[in-house]
Amino acid sequence: MQKKTIRTAVLALIAAGAPAAAAAQTPPPAVSVAVTRPAPEQKWSVDFGIGFDNGISGNINSGGIGVYNGQTTVILKNKYEDVYGTGLHIRFGAGYMYREDVEFRMHLTIQSLDADLVHMGDFGASNLYGQYDDYQSMSLDFGVRQYIPLTEMIRGYGEGLLGIAFVDETDILLSAPQSGLIEEATDFYDRTAAFSLAINVGALFEARENVDVFAQIGLRYVTGMTEVDGLVGTGLETINDKSARWSLPILVGARLRF
Asked: How far lies 23's CA from each of 18, 20, 214, 233, in Å?
């Protein structure tokens, strides 16, 4: 009887102590701690890119009908891509990492496009041809870039920039073989300071600890060039007053971080 009483008391004590032991063994609830990505150690960067500049919209000259050098003259519309086609696009860049995924950007952009001989229209009974000067521009652009991580080594990005483009003076040589006309239309467009707008998307590949390579495609807009009023009184005054240009530059290059 005594043994039974002792055994019952022991079991009661074990039953009473079990919840406390379980509570003691249960780990405390995890405390949620926000993880903040460290600021980049290499905040500054410089880069160089080279590629192609593809004209997609805009007229180097509009159409018109008038009288030039005493002859009835018809001018046909010519787009930039008709005259210049694909040219060279060079960019020097610098950046400052404001945050891990946001970078302030500055670009020096050079565009150079060779001109082809084009059919301008009619001069009296003769076909009229034009040889434009090459298109040369240099612009200084400022903007911001947003990065998106794709893999451990690759980041995508999108950027927007605004700036000022300086376009060289553009002359045109006019020729109407059957009429014996060869004439230089000097300063068809004067040297111009135009506004530029660019939107680019690309991918950045980490090649070394502080070296990246990149590839990008963009959309670039440059406002119209300054026309020269050498055609006043001919009826052709408006053929060079709508010369804004859209292009599609494609670049590859490298970036150095420090």
From this structure: 9, 5, 57, 99
